[in-house]
């Protein structure tokens, strides 16, 4: 639709005059514009910044928020404006899109914030104009890579139930996940080093053995070197076979670069075994030995820097190609010129054009060995031009490669840094989050204390515990309470939960009470919420942490905060039955269960109920056996 | 002989050196060879045009003040420099006819609007044309249409001119039509037109023939209501 040029529609319709005289039939009736709306100004209030525009400007793009009736949801009738609680900076570019038809991406905006704004206002990011689209896409790609990196880190956490094969593959790919993998990693690294050193030392001349001149060590200690070689190759073969077995996609693994390097590293040995000392093939045999040096590339599994270098070279393939091509051109040109320039001089080393190649290469790369030098004047002039141009041609693509390498290297460094910081960040975030989760529990405790103190008419601590929670918080807590009531489970904090998991894991849980009591589920699986049991213990006794029965105890904190109330209760228990029952009510409030007497005897649990029943008798009987009662919070 | 060869190459070498030297001097600005920079030319090309005042336009056209404001805002949005050249004009018109090829017809329209034939359309030209088309009398409108058809502005519409116009109109339809457009259709349409319009059968249509014929044609008169509620 030509919404962008909607203002020109009257013109286009007027231009239809040209069709009318030639038309053979009358024109159809034009649509009537009933709502003869004058073009009006719309006020858009974005977080206090006021933007104004014509209604027709916004109507240009009817499938966005501002162009459709969706904006009526944001209309504020009192101030007669549309209020959006969003970022005014981003809104500026969005409004400009309506005005000019081009969406621009402001460089100083965070990419995800900008994306969110676009999604909110119903604009697809593909409309971003060509001037800003590249930048947008680059930043988006960076962001995605960063997210993917993070996701990969998360995948380090071991999923349960991995087959042997998957476990092995994981160990191979991430050596730091298990000790065995680490050991394997270092052992292979060690053997690679040994192998490479062996290859090198083999050729060093050892001391002469009397009558013979200096022999290389390889020929002197043939057996020893052969054994060393065999050992290394065996280790490599075993490693390769294990990797092959563990790979999730064997075909893809076999095509990967690392596996090819592995194969090339061990193949010469086997070929050497197969081939005898046949004179015909001994030349090839010698060549094969050269391939042993590829073992050094196996180090790239161990070194990230090598991998980065390889990746850089791969990504700069086009620049390298250009470099090579331009060098070749220059070499041919200059070699030809030098050849013809030096043709006349006697005893010239420039015997043919290919022979001049050597001179040209050496000169262009500014090596200047000096084994071939021009003697004629023309030769010298062209030679100097050759060396000057060599510097330029080589210097041009190199910065591109360097900058690519630098970008990738820094990216990797940043990824490493992020990974290192991640643990600390997550720990800190977890602490701050758990603070808010515990708010509910704290408020429950505080609320209970409030009630207790009100009942006991003690004035001193009331101010401390006055409800300073906001309306929002209290409504939130009410909601959580409703949930607790619905599911007959109660929220507890982290410590308690861990404790209880340990307990139920350690102990065989015989209690199979038919009630809705939660200790059932907790006995079954360590994960349900359990009810807490108020410690009906005499005030001074700290909570025994690990010797609980199926019934769980409140945490020490809980106990301590209640010790005061406990003692109050106990004191006042005799005073008034009303108080007693109230106290009893409150007692059972936090808790859940009195253990039913039909539970299989656990000495603790049996011991406790009688004690507890004392202050809570009237309530306990009404509490039935396993009913959880929640206090009047 | 051999020495000649060497001298030849030496000469070439020395020549190359001299040329490089001169070029280097030129790059360092020591030798002004009188190069004109291209950038200067670009400066002149952006032209800004400001239209006449609102009152004058109001007087010369039949639009109200508000209408002129709306028109100008739309105009200036597409052409911030204040004038439309043919390319922009064609682009804008093409947006209304995405299926077909509207550039030929837009070319004719441009020539019709551009009354002073200076190759660009200012806001005055634009709004004067619109005023005639939307608010003018039947006579004026038909006159304008005749002007559109008369490509070389000689006062006569020939069959060739009409054929061009017809082809341009059919081009705007594009390929996907029903029934399929045949090669012959524009020509046939022109024949029908000439039969209707050309009273004295002299092969051209004059302005009087045209206006007479259109005023007597019911279909055309009825179609004139098209322009009533455009703005």
From TrEMBL, chain A:
Descriptive protein name: Potassium voltage-gated channel subfamily D member 3
The keyword Cytoplasm belongs to this UniProt entry's keyword annotation: no
Superkingdom of origin organism: Eukaryota
Primary subcellular site in the record, as a coarse category: membrane
Gene3D superfamilies registered for this protein in UniProt: 1.10.287.70, Potassium Channel Kv1.1, Chain A, Voltage-gated potassium channels. Chain C
Compositional bias (Polar residues): 561-570
SMART domains linked: BTB
Compartment(s): Cell membrane; Cell projection, Dendrite
GO BP: action potential; potassium ion export across plasma membrane; protein homooligomerization
Region annotation (Disordered) ranges: 561-623
UniProtKB/TrEMBL annotation, chain B:
Superkingdom, taxonomy of origin: Eukaryota
Positions of the EF-hand domain: 101-136, 137-172, 185-220
Listed PROSITE patterns: EF_HAND_1, EF_HAND_2
UniProt KW keywords: Calcium, Cell membrane, Cytoplasm, Ion channel, Ion transport, Membrane, Metal-binding, Peroxisome, Phosphoprotein, Potassium, Potassium channel, Potassium transport, Repeat, Transmembrane, Transmembrane helix, Transport, Voltage-gated channel
InterPro entries to which the protein is assigned, alphabetical: EF-hand-dom_pair, EF_Hand_1_Ca_BS, EF_hand_dom, Recoverin
GO terms for MF: calcium ion binding; potassium channel activity; potassium channel regulator activity
The keyword Ion transport belongs to this UniProt entry's keyword annotation: yes
Gene Ontology CC entries for this record: peroxisome; voltage-gated potassium channel complex
GO process terms (BP): regulation of potassium ion transmembrane transport
Presence of the UniProt keyword Transport in the record: yes
Entries under SMART domains matching the protein: EFh
Family membership: Belongs to the recoverin family.
Record's protein name: Kv channel-interacting protein 4
Protein species of origin: Gasterosteus aculeatus aculeatus (three-spined stickleback)
């Amino acid at each position: 639709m030509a919404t962008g040029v909607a203002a020109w529609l009257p013109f286009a319709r007027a231009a239809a005059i040209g069709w009318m005289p030639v038309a053979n039939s009358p024109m159809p009736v034009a649509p009537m514009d009933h709502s003869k709306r004058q073009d009006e100004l719309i006020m858009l209030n974005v977080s206090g910044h006021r933007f104004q525009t014509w209604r027709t400007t916004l109507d240009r793009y009817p499938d966005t928020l501002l162009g459709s009736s969706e904006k009526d949801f944001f209309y504020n009738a009192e101030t007669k404006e549309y209020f959006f609680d969003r970022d005014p900076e981003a809104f500026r570019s969005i409004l400009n899109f309506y005005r000019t038809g081009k969406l621009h991406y402001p460089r100083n905006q965070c990419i995800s914030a900008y994306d969110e704004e676009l999604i909110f206002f119903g604009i697809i990011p593909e409309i971003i104009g060509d001037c800003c689209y590249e930048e947008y896409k680059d930043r988006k790609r960076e962001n995605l890579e960063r997210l993917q990196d993070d996701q990969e880190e998360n995948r380090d956490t071991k999923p349960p139930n991995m087959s042997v094969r998957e476990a092995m593959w994981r160990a191979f790919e991430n050596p730091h996940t298990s000790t065995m993998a680490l050991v394997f990693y270092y052992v292979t690294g060690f053997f690679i080093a040994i192998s490479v050193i062996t290859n090198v030392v083999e050729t060093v001349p050892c001391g002469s053995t009397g009558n013979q001149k200096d022999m290389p060590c390889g020929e002197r200690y043939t057996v020893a070197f052969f054994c060393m070689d065999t050992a290394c190759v065996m280790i490599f073969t075993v490693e390769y076979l294990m990797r092959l077995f563990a790979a999730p996609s064997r075909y893809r693994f076999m095509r990967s670069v690392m596996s090819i390097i592995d194969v090339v590293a061990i193949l010469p040995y086997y070929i050497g075994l197969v081939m005898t000392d046949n004179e015909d093939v001994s030349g090839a045999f010698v060549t094969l030995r050269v391939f042993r040096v590829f073992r050094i590339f196996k180090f790239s599994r161990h070194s990230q820097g090598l991998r980065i270098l390889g990746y850089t070279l791969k990504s700069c393939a086009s620049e390298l190609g250009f470099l090579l091509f331009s060098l070749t051109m220059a070499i041919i040109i200059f070699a030809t010129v030098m050849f013809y320039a030096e043709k006349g001089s006697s005893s010239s080393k420039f015997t043919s054009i290919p022979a001049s190649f050597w001179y040209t290469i050496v000169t262009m790369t500014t090596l200047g060995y000096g084994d071939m030098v021009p003697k004629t004047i023309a030769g010298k002039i062209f030679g100097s031009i050759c060396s000057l141009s060599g510097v330029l041609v080589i210097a041009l693509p190199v910065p591109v490669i360097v900058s690519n390498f630098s970008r990738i290297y820094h990216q990797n460094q940043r990824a490493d840094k992020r990974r290192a910081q991640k643990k600390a960040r997550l720990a800190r975030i977890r602490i701050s989050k758990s603070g808010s989760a515990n708010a509910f529990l704290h408020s429950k405790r505080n609320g209970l204390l409030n009630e207790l103190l009100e009942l006991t008419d003690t004035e001193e601590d009331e101010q401390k515990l006055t409800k300073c929670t906001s309306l929002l918080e209290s409504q939130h807590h009410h909601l959580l309470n409703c949930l607790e009531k619905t599911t007959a489970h109660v929220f507890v904090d982290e410590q308690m939960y861990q404790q209880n998991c340990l307990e139920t894991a350690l102990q065989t849980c015989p209690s199979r009470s038919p009630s809705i009591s939660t200790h059932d589920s907790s006995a079954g699986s360590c994960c349900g919420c359990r009810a807490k049991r108020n410690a009906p213990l005499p005030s001074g006794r700290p909570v025994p942490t690990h010797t609980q029965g199926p019934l769980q105890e409140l945490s020490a904190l809980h106990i301590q905060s209640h010790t005061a109330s406990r003692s109050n209760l106990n004191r006042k228990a005799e005073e008034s039955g009303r108080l007693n029952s109230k106290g009893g009510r409150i007692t059972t409030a936090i808790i859940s269960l009195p253990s039913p007497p039909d539970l299989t005897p656990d000495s603790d649990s049996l011991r406790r109920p009688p004690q507890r029943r004392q202050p809570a008798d009237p309530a306990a009987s009404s509490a039935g056996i396993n009913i959880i009662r929640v206090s009047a919070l | 002989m051999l020495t000649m060869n060497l001298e030849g190459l030496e000469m070439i070498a020395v020549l190359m050196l001299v040329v490089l030297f001169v070029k280097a001097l030129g790059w360092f600005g020591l030798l002004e060879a009188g190069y004109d920079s291209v950038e200067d030319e670009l400066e002149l090309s952006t032209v800004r045009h400001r239209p006449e005042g609102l009152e004058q336009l109001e007087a010369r056209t039949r639009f109200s003040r508000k209408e002129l404001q709306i028109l100008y805002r739309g105009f200036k949005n597409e052409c911030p420099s204040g004038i439309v050249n043919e390319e922009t004009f064609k682009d804008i018109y093409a947006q209304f006819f995405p299926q077909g090829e509207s550039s030929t017809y837009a070319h004719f329209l441009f020539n019709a609007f551009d009354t002073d034939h200076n190759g660009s359309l200012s806001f005055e030209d634009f709004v004067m044309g619109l005023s005639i088309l939307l608010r003018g009398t039947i006579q004026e409108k038909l006159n304008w249409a005749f002007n559109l058809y008369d490509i070389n502005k000689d006062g006569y519409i020939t069959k060739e001119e009409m054929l061009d116009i017809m082809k341009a109109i059919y081009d705007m339809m594009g390929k996907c039509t029903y029934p399929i457009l045949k090669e012959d259709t524009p020509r046939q349409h022109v024949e029908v037109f000439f039969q209707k319009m050309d009273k004295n059968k002299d092969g051209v249509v004059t302005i009087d023939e045209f206006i007479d014929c259109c005023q007597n044609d019911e279909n055309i008169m009825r179609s004139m209501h098209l322009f009533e509620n455009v703005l």
